[in-house]
Amino acid sequence: MKRLFALLLLCVSLPALAYEYKYGEWVAFTGKLQTMRGGWMAVVLDKPITVVPKPGDDDGIDTPETGVRMMQLAMSSPENFRQYRQFKGRMARVQCETLFHSITAHHQTPVLCSVARISAPDRP
């Protein structure tokens, strides 16, 4: 019985172990770059994360998300697309200018990354 209780407690507490980030901040992650069905690009993170609004941000758009394992990549520069193609299907380091919550039907994951740079996982 004690073993079962300990196992249940562990399962409930796992999301609490996720790293916490705030919407609107510059961050970097490592993960595998993948093109998903439908053609959208994503990073599958090494570890789950939690994303929360900044203090005082009460507009209701940036809702907290826990256990985030995949993020859609929002890219606008040709350089970002070149970097993505270079690391597609491999591990990479993705630097995000900002994290933002999905707000349109074109957004495929709850949290998206506005890409600043993609590089080798062991490079800054």
Describe what is shown at a glance.
The protein has helices at 2-13, 78-87, and strands at 19-22, 27-35, 41-52, 65-74, 91-101, 111-119. It has one domain (18-119): OB fold (Dihydrolipoamide Acetyltransferase, E2P). Mean pLDDT is 86; it is low at 4-10.
Outline the structure in words.
It is a single chain. The chain is α/β, with parallel strands linked by helices. It has a single domain, classed as Beta Barrel (OB fold (Dihydrolipoamide Acetyltransferase, E2P)), CATH 2.40.50. The protein has 2 helices and 6 strands. The chain has a 5-stranded mixed β-barrel. A hairpin with a 5-residue loop joins strand 2 and strand 3. About 6% of the residues have low confidence.
Give descriptors for this structure.
44% strand; 124 residues; single chain; alpha/beta; five-stranded mixed beta barrel; OB fold (Dihydrolipoamide Acetyltransferase, E2P)
Describe the SSE topology.
Layout: H1 2-13, E1 19-22, E2 27-35, E3 41-52, E4 65-74, H2 78-87, E5 91-101, E6 111-119
Parallel strand pairs: 1-3, 4-6
Antiparallel strand pairs: 2-3, 2-5, 3-4, 5-6
Mean pLDDT: 86
Cα(first) to Cα(last) distance is 48 Å
Arrangement of strands in the largest sheet: 2-3-4-6-5
CATH topology: OB fold (Dihydrolipoamide Acetyltransferase, E2P)
Strand % is: 35-45%
Query: What overall form do the CA principal axes indicate?
Result: globular
Tell me the number of helical segments per DSSP (H or I, 4 or more residues long). 2
Q: Low-confidence parts lasting 5 or more residues at pLDDT below 50?
A: 4-10
- Class, according to the CATH hierarchy? Mainly Beta
Number of strands: 6
Measured as a percent range, the helix fraction is: 10-25%
Largest sheet: 5 strands, mixed, barrel
Give me the secondary-structure category.
alpha/beta
How do the SSEs run, as a string of H and E? HEEEEHEE
Rg from C-alpha positions? 16 Å
Number of domains: 1
Q: What is the correct CATH architecture?
A: Beta Barrel
